């Protein structure tokens, strides 16, 4: 089987988890390759996400590495056997791979948590808001890609609309709600959109007001996606050089604690809705 030219973030994550199993057992890639009846080069491709692995080989690897975490191995087996071709694949070759990786991550997530300080979370944005955000990028996107980005962002809301919606929590700073990304009409429509979506099943929105004392979390924006087991959670952060997918245990622990700290600094959902409703009167 030829190597993948560009593995997805999910495929890279699977390979990384297999490497963690091997490292935890103190085994070399050569040793594992011998046990699985493959080559060291092929094992390196598998661990890099550039090649697939069968469920049978995955379970043999887990047995040889003495991994007793049955839930983790079953979750990895699902990642191996899942052949989902999602709606986001229509944007392949049109949008940067990170856009598609995020959609795939959301599709498989057991829950989603967002923290945003200066922008409304993407899953809550209106078309006008998203278009204004993408239009602001210099030197300007071609019209076709601009509209594709907007359509993709709107399509991501399918996780709220399916039979078993993904549980979603967002902590939004008042700054994000007050920055006029578009015009006054678009700003009012964006606040109305947040109120409407917050009435949906499993959607919780909290606001951190400007007058909250001791808030020093201006750089705390994050997307936190829950995996089938906590070890397979993922944090996504935007950076000047691109989008980063973080999954080290220490990183996950840090961002779990950070989310709960920000949650504690915010208004409860009922008061947050009242807060946003009052803001709509100002527009």
Task: Describe the structure in brief.
It contains 13 helices and 6 strands.
What does this protein structure show overall?
The protein is an alpha/beta fold and 283 residues long. Helix content is 50%, strand content 12%. It has a six-stranded mixed sheet, with helices on both faces. A hairpin with a 2-residue loop joins strand 5 and strand 6 (242-246). Helix 2 packs across helix 3 (40-47). The radius of gyration is 21 Å and the shape is elongated.
Main sheet overview:
6 strands, mixed
Instruction: Note the beta-strand portion.
Output: 5-15%
Mean pLDDT comes to: 94
Element-level helix/strand string: HHHHHHEHHHEHHEEEEHH
Number of separate helices: 13
- The total beta strand count reads 6
Termini separation comes to 58 Å
- Categorize the overall geometry: elongated
Q: Which blocks of ≥5 consecutive residues have pLDDT under 50?
A: none
Class by alpha and beta content? alpha/beta
Strand order of the largest sheet: 3-2-1-4-5-6
> Considering DSSP H and I runs of 4 or more, what fraction of the residues is helical?
40-55%
Indicate the radius of gyration in whole angstroms: 21 Å
Lay out the secondary structure.
Blueprint lengths: L8 H16 L4 H8 L3 H8 L7 H10 L5 H12 L15 H12 L2 E6 L10 H9 L7 H13 L2 H4 L5 E7 H5 L5 H14 L5 E6 L13 E5 L7 E6 L2 E5 L2 H17 L3 H14 L1
Parallel strand pairs: 1-2, 2-3
Antiparallel strand pairs: 1-4, 4-5, 5-6
Helix pairs in contact: 2-3, 4-5, 7-8, 11-13
